[in-house]
Amino acid sequence: MRIVLGVGGGIAAYKVASLLRLFTEAGHHVTVIPTEAATRFVGTATWEALSGNPVSNSVFDDVHQVNHVRLGHEADLVVIAPATADLLAKAATGQAGDLLTNTLLMAHGPVLFAPAMHTEMWQHPATRANVETLRGRGAAVLEPASGRLTGSDSGPGRLPEPDAIFDAAMALVHGQTDFQLPLAGKTVTISAGGTREPLDPVRFLGNRSSGKQGVALAVAARNAGATVRLLSAHMEVPPPPGVDVVNVETALQLREAALAAAVDSDVVIMSAAVADFRPADISDTKIKKRDDTADPVITLVRNPDILQELVERRNQGIAGPAAGGQLIVGFAAETGDQHGDVLAYAEAKLQRKGCDLLVVNHVGSDKVFGKDTNSVVILARSGSEPQEASGTKADVSAAIISRIGFELNQVSPRA
C-alpha cells in the first residue's frame, strides 16, 4: 500500500518516527512530507533513513514528476500526524501553499488526521469548526489523547500513541469508520503487580503476580486515548511509556494511592494482586533462626478491602468526575473447590463488592501468574451475559478496554 505521511510542525513530530516504522515494517511504501516547520523538530535525513525514500516539502523539487499532483493521486492513504491547529485550518480552508497541502487537495483515498496541540488550541471554536468541516467532507479526525503536554500543562491535546494511529489507519483503509479512541479525554487508574507485606527488614509475604496483565491494560487504555495512572506494586516488567506511575509496596500503601487517584478518575481498574492479610507485627530486626528458641508464630490481620471501599466512595459521590459517573472494574483470581466452581465464587464476589465489572481468572501454579497468555471471563453487575476473552495478555486487555468503552457509553448512571 502507498501511504503519504504528512508531518506537522509540533513537538510531537518525534513520535511520528515510530509511526513511520510501524508502516514500513508492515510492508507499506511510505512517502514522508514534512512541513517546513516540522523539519525544525525532526530533520529530513531521519525521514529518508526510516522510509527509504527521498523527502521534500517543496512543489519545486522533481518538477518533472509533478509531485504535487502525483503523490495525492497515487496514495492509498494519507495520514497527517501531528495534525497541528495550523494544518487543520489550512486543510479545512483548502489552502495549497506547500507540497503537503497540495497533496491533501489531490488525495483520492482516505485521509486520517491525528491532532496534537495545546488544550486551549484544541478546544478553540475555530479549531473545532475546522475539525467538523473536515469530518463533514469525509476525512477521519481522531480525538487527541489526554495527558502531559509541553511544559507542566496537562489535558486533551496529546498525540495518540503511534500504534493507536496505526490501528486507526488500517481500520480506515479497510472501510471501518468506528475507530475513534473510546477513552479519549478519560482518566483511568490501574493497579498492577503484587503487594508485599513485610515480616522483618528482609522477609515479606507476597504472591506470584508479575504485573504483566496490569501493564498490558495500561498500554491498551493509553492507546484508547486515556490519561493513565499506573499504581505499581512489585512487577517483573517495566511500566510502559506514556503513563503516570505511582510506586507502592504494601496493601495499605496501595489503598492510600487508589483512594487519592480515584477522586478524579473516570475508570478505576484494580488488577493488582492485593494481599488479603498482613503480619500483625513487623520485626525491626531480622528474625533469627536459633536452635534454643521456639519456631516463630506469625499472627495475621486482615487488610482493608480496597475495591469495596472504592465502590462505597463512588456511590457516596466522594470519588469520580461526577456522582455515579465512575466505572470500577475488579479482578478475581479464583480457584474452585468442593463447595463451588470458579464462576460461582466470582459471581458471589461481584455481588459482594458491588463493582461494575469483574474480570475472573482461573489461577493455579501453572496458570496466569507470570505467563504471557491469559483466559478470562468478564462479569457485569448489570446481569448481562458473561463475556469470554483469551489470547495474549495484550489481546485480553484490548477486550477489557473495549468492554469498558462500551459501558461508559451507556446513558444510565451507576447507582
Structure description:
The protein has 415 residues and is α/β, with parallel strands linked by helices. The protein has 13 helices and 19 strands. The strands form 5 sheets. An 8-stranded mixed beta sheet has the order 12-11-8-13-16-17-18-19, with helices on both faces. A 5-stranded parallel beta sheet has the order 2-1-3-4-5, sandwiched between helices.
Q: Supply the CATH class of the largest domain.
A: Alpha Beta
DSSP strand (E) fraction? Answer: 15-25%
Radius of gyration: 25 Å
Reported by name, the CATH topology of the largest domain is Rossmann fold
CATH superfamily of the largest domain: CoaB-like
Characterize the biggest β-sheet.
Answer: 8 strands, mixed
Unreliable stretches, pLDDT < 50, 5 or more residues? 411-415
Overall mean confidence score, pLDDT: 88
The best one-word shape is: elongated
Helix coverage percent of residues? 25-40%
Q: How does the helix and strand content classify structurally? A: alpha/beta
Order of strands across the widest beta sheet? 12-11-8-13-16-17-18-19
User: In the CATH classification, which architecture of the largest domain applies?
Assistant: 3-Layer(aba) Sandwich
Number of helices: 13
The rounded distance between the terminal residues' Cα atoms is: 49 Å
Number of strands: 19
Describe the secondary structure blueprint for this structure:
Blueprint: E1 2-7, H1 13-25, E2 29-34, H2 44-51, H3 67-74, E3 77-83, H4 85-92, H5 99-106, E4 111-115, H6 119-123, H7 125-136, E5 140-141, E6 145-148, E7 154-158, H8 162-173, E8 187-192, E9 197-198, E10 204-205, H9 212-223, E11 227-232, E12 244-247, H10 251-262, E13 267-270, E14 277-279, E15 300-302, H11 306-315, E16 327-334, H12 342-353, E17 357-362, E18 373-380, E19 387-392, H13 393-408
Parallel strand pairs: 1-2, 1-3, 3-4, 4-5, 8-11, 8-13, 11-12, 13-16, 16-17
Antiparallel strand pairs: 6-7, 9-10, 14-15, 17-18, 18-19
Helix pairs in contact: 1-2, 1-8, 3-5, 4-7, 9-13
